[in-house]
Amino acid sequence: MYWNKEETLPRKKLEALQLEKLKAVAARVYQKVPFYKKKFDAAGVKPKDIKSLKDIQKLPFTVKDDLRDNYPYGMFAMPMKDVVRVHASSGTTGKPTVVGYTRNDIETWADLIARCLVSAGAHKGDIIHNAYGYGLFTGGLGFHYGAEKLGATVIPVSGGNTQRQILIMKDFGSTVLTCTPSYALHLADVAAEQGIDIKKLKLRVGIHGAEPWSERMRDEIEKRVGIDALDIYGLSEVIGPGVSCECIEEKHGLHIYEDHFLAEVIDPKTGEPVEPGEQGELVFTCLSKEAFPLIRYRTKDLSHLIAEPCKCGRTSCRMSRITGRTDDMLIIRGVNVFPSQIEHVLLNIEGLEPHYLIIVDRKAALDELEVQVEVSEKIFSDEMKRLDQLRDKLENDLKDYLGVNAKITLVEPRTIQRSEGKAKRVIDKRKI
Amino acid sequence: MKVKQISVFMENQPGRLAAMASCLGDAGINIMALTVAESSDFGVIRLIVNDFEKARKILKDRKFTVAETEVLAVEIPDEPGSLGKVLKVFAEQGLNVEYMYAFVSRRQDALIVFRFDDPDKAISALKNTKVKVLTNEEVLALVK
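The joint structure predicted for all components is written out below.
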């Protein structure tokens, strides 16, 4: 069962399609996006120089800082009157990363998610419990439109209100669960607290992403929630969720939707392509998007490609689970958090010195973020209430800025190690 | 008329308070009054010592975070009702007590340390009462 016929195109036809689209998008961005014209010219390359798929290596890379430098709409290839939606995700500093979609882009995206749902065995008649966050985050609305396109029944629960979600799951008869992997386990925990065995509900399959997770975690979800648990991958810069997804037949490697995204794996230090099957940084070129097509976008996600044909019959290349990042970005409950953002909030407080330690842990199923902040003389007070106020203000400011809850622990100066060179700012205790 | 209090920031971990007390003791510092204000993760230790500058230096050398605050040390008769009387004086003047703690000395009266946002206003409030506000020297003289 496939959603689009492109999923089983013979490789030669797929690659021919990719080349045709690559030539078109290179020409389009060269013409419409000043940033790309400048970059192409600096690299001494013109769109007509693309004659084979390998020629993609002539094109320059795009990095997250380029999006920040062109905030908010500087890299859009369509006028705003044709952009029907924008989404945003965390930036390394103050500004979020903004992405845009035309009506056609929304349709393409919905198709991609529909593909994911079908590859998970979902169909019209399924009741899809969508617990990804709705709003600027691409997860909620991404899955929503895809599920509607499939013709299934969507319950737009979004995140939070877990007790109510269990009730809805039970009473509304949800059959497909779309949420982060840690939230799936959290639902199982809360259901158990309510005396409900989540395995006895109608849930059959889950599609989980927005944060890294392991085979061990998949086993745990499948055992405790009583579903098949599939991995989905995406990032808002490339489109959102729906760049790649596992199939229920194999549950090994995520099929990249290569008719829409040209994937490369590079050595993050040199920028050169790695050997086939070797691990490196994932790079995507958007072949179909109209409003915001990116050329060779460096994701900072580490993975490797699996070229072996899959028994599901899909001909597109697979990628492994994400095994790590090339930068220091953290994912806390599905939300991207950069340590530099935390530092930004701390330095906004008069007199607070940047001696802090970020500790990430996962007790039960949910991620917990703690920021230890050193109390120096400048911020110390003899009055407890002033220290409480400082802590409360920091917690509120972080919540506002990052979109996640953080616990602030005030500590003595001796607690946080000083180090030669770059201070170790983050301790991630999670064993995913 | 104001007394120097030293306050120390402290994590709520076993051994921290002992470490602070020991380093002061090793340096020959005599603690005359102390109180510990606590919350779940940390506390603030407030002390009146016999050598403020020496204590501050010792603690800073040991990497403690310290602060200096001016407080009032007040002498009242050591009998039921005397605390209520002095607190009433403050209340009538609209003076809010930020915190307070009491200590004993070899004299007959009870001694109370008060922290106010406006210590001068508190001193004026007590002018026409029988309550004695001690000077820094008088407080230090209580311990021999």
